[in-house]
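User: what does the whole thing look like in 3D?
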Amino acid sequence: MKPNEQSYSKSRRLKNQIKEVVTNPYNVIVVIAIVLLTYLIVFPLVDMLSTTFHLAQRDLRSVPGGVAGEFTFYYWQRLLASDLTMKLLVQPLVNSLIIGAGVSICAIALGSVLAWLMVRSDLPFKPFFSLAVIIPYMIPSWVKSQAWLSMFKTPRVGGAPGFVASIMLNMGMSPDAIETVLGPIAYGEIAVIIVLSLHYYAYTYLLVSAALNSINSELEEMGEIQGASKSLILRRITLPLVLPAMLSAVILTFSKAIGTFGTINYLGSPVNFRTLSSELYSNNRSQNTQTAFAMAILMICIASLSVFINQKLIGSRKSYATIGGKGGRSTPIGLGGWKPLITLILIVFFIVGIIMPVIILILESCMLKEGAYSLENFTLYYWIGEGNPNIMEGVPGIFKNSNFKLSLWNSLKLTFVNGVFGTIFGQMLGYICAKGRGTFHGRLVEQLVFIPYLIPSVAFGGIYLSMFSKPQTVFGVTLVPALYGTFALLTLTSVVKHLPFASRAGTSNMMQISGELEEAATIEGAGFFKRFIKIVFPLSKGGFISGFMLIFVSIMKELDLIILIMTPTTSTLPYLAFQYQNQNCPQASDCVAIVMFSIVFLVYALANIFGDADLAKSMAG
Amino acid sequence: MLKRKNILACLLALVMLLSLAACGGGGGDSQPSGGDSQPSGGDAGQAAPADPASGDLTEWEQSSGIYNTDETDDELYQKALEEGATVTLYSISSRCTKVAEAFMAKYPGLECVPFDISTNDLLEKVTKEYEAGAPTADVVHIKDQDGSMYLEYVANKIFYNFKPADIFSHIDPSYTETATPLYIELTQLFYNTEVYPDGSPITNLWQLTEPQWKGKIMMQNPLDNLAWGSWIAGFCVGEEPQRLADAYKDLYGKDLALSDGCENAGYEFLKQLHANEPIFTASSDEIAESVGTPGQSDPPVGFCASSKLRKAEENGWLFAPVNLEPDTGIPAVNTLYIVEGSDHPSAAKLLVRFMMGGVDGDIGGYKPFNTLGGWPVRDDLAPAEGSTPFEEINVAPFDATEIYYNYNTVRDFWQQLG
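Assistant: Here's the predicted 3D structure for the full assembly of 1039 residues, as structure tokens:
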């Protein structure tokens, strides 16, 4: 090459370089992704930001001489530098960070240990455990909060005391003594951290187990041959290789924990424990939209910071490629004498943390009157009742209700279509993030994708509603027709809102696929799309499935986002559950929740069975 | 080499971004006030809603005849059939489904689409749909608790109060000044009747500030939503502070001393209430359950929606509301609005008349709302069996404007308390 270098003209070389950049499908995809993400994510964000700088009509009463819609620092000044700052921002923020850090540590530890046990160890009853392990994520977090309260509720707050408190009462302890002992456990940060960790460890479990699955156990065996101890292998070989997955899980868990509201509302309110997310929701529900948006933007900044730190930690040098060209044999690691003990602990964990809430939920759906545990109170009315005017104001049970069938169909359509679309986009974006690791565009995409995660659903839905209610035109050409009231808008909104799940799963997954495989194919003349379909996609199936599950479950449970976008005639299952709850029919609402849960569980079981089988096959071949 | 490629790729992306931003900027102008979720345009909140007699009517006001209140049900029915035979109702009550069924049974050929949705989502949805020029709701059922429905939505002509004279003649004018009222709910203090069979341990609001009730008062955090925020604001405005000061004197025989930062007896009461560490819950149901569950030895008292009364029997709760001195705070009036730009104004009017109980003696549209804990605004409709007559309950005066202008101050005051 060297002797001939001079014979090329510089301009021709530049031309070829440009041609290479423009025609390279990867670059084209990156550009399309950035343009789309800008349009779908940055615009809404800018919209929110500009809202916080414009005086709302409803705040004219607090700003003498103000004009509605004029530029103002009122909201930010009020939030960041006023008498209220301490109560409105600082204290809640500190609480949020405590919750975020606490939940991340507990959930990551729990999820990783479980993932390692399920994937790499010789634990018995694995098929059962690996199905059960994901259930907590499918149970709505308010059910878990209620389960927590029915265990630890103290007499001070009235009502029926919790299980533990009633035992203590029977033992003759005074209510004051019980309060001292149980109070800190029943409500406040400890309760919130435990309940949320039991909910969000699923992120870690799904991501880390997908990563572990792809590790060739030869790597560990090599260590063993060299005489490394089990813990050394774990620390020096296994752990570094699943680090991207774990860090992805940290980001998801941390952001979700600081953004969550339901559990904190349930378990924090009674002791006036408020976080930034409680303030956000309170302000939003009090129609203080601007303040709520400003808080959401602060939360987005915190999350961006965590993504940034993650990018620094992962760096651009280290390699996490575990999916190489060689066979992916996986030999389980013996637990030795610990086996019975670990198995026992897991069984207890599953019974208490997983099976109990489910059983309580099922029991409650079969009780004529709430809270009365007796045989004559048992009924299947809420499931299959024909419409008795004395129960539920004459509304028939859910399986006899045409509304239910419609909602079921809508929910299925929504979750499957969005799950598939969302996962495909997520994997593509993950591919960009992973291959573009350390580059500007890779980091940009990674940051952009994350933003919708923390925009409150109501705000996000509202912005999309106004963006897409009219045709979007550029220079007189209609790019996007008016989408309001269409299924397309529902899909678009849900896919974008849930992109972070899929793309996180995609990123950690794609990082493990060795670049050599693609390079080999390139030498053989395979184009980008062929490589993606024939190599990248089959190898990333595990991550694909975990991404799909994460998206599928969240969309199945989504209410606020969808209720704004849908028309009164497109009802979904969460909406039906909300309606029943509103009609003072928690039992029927429980029935709907059980149906939702069963669907998710079924899909997960199928994905697990077929996904694993396929994965194993493709790895062996 | 690779590096340069990347730079080029970035440049390319940047160009695309810029052009997109430019297009976006152009497109953005055509959108009405972007993310401003508050109704914009129109005059400031102070402006009173247009008087039908004065000024020019907008196109829609003219075509819909929104100020025409003389039409009979039959005339409206005929017009409704002609204009599309459908009407959409957004409601904060699940009972809207029953209303819709009854409406369709009474007026065959008309379709009524009910949509049960929470206050916050309802406002967001209606506002966005309206701004985007795609109004979907014809009739809205909500509560005007902080006066914003009147001073923002009605004043800016997004919502209209339809005022049928024949029905309004049966309603106390103080309720119809700023709204088309449907029924009244209250926030009442409940006590456990099993432990206190001889009546409530508390009869005066100020008793809640006494040490023996520390940590034994259940309520929702007023910061959490508009309803509770308006309720605490109600104590600090109009004649209410004076009534509170008088009640204090009645109870303790001495004048109330205001602490620093408390402008009037209302703020003082809130401060002392907060200092007594009320327990906040996530839902009204939880409060009813905490107070009313049988078998307790030292149950709390709690403020919750009067509508929980109708759940008492079903759940076996043993509780009763207190008729507090000086009063139980402001009432929550359920109100009805017709949305500007509605393509089905006649059907909307007919539905509003139907829900308000009509004039032909058929109250099928009002019936679903006539339950324990809700009181009709019409003097010719009887409340549900077993209800305490509304005149006998001490209720604070409700002035939408006063509440609206003091809402933020009171909310900030409460936030400051911690």
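In plain terms: Chain A touches chain B through 89 residues (CB under 8 Å). The first strand of chain A starts at residue 472 and ends at 474.
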